[in-house]
Design brief:
Order of helices and strands: HHHEE
Shape: globular
Distance between the termini: 6 Å
Structural class: mainly alpha
Low-confidence stretches: 81-85, 89-97
Number of helices: 3
Strand order of the largest sheet: 1-2
Radius of gyration: 13 Å
Helix content: 25-40%
Mean pLDDT: 74
Length: 97
């Protein structure tokens, strides 16, 4: 997936209850509405933390994943062709190429 301003998505979900519900129910479709294309074969799961429950996402191939924030991970696999979103090992975690 292209580099995405994930903070803007989170802010919109906080300000727009209808968008938040769409994001939780149909993440790929809701992200598509924001111009974020989810590659074929990739499943996006959106969960909401609570005061008593926080989520930690463990990347499939941790050696090539760099976390930029609690929300975004970037695939830095030196074997992956630049700009090829399908080569990222964990796009569902927010990999940006």
């Amino acid at each position: 997936m292209k580099t995405v301003n994930w903070e803007a998505i989170i802010d919109k979900a906080g300000a727009d209850a209808a968008f938040k519900q769409r994001l939780l129910a149909e993440p790929a479709k809701a992200l598509g509405e924001e111009g974020i294309a989810v590659p074929d074969g990739v499943t996006v799961k959106v969960v909401e933390s609570t005061d008593k429950e926080v989520w930690l996402v463990l990347p499939h191939k941790h050696s090539s994943i760099k976390f930029l924030s609690p929300y975004v991970a970037v695939c830095e696999d030196p074997e992956a062709p630049a700009g090829d979103s399908k080569s990222c090992q964990n796009p569902a975690a927010g990999c940006a190429i």
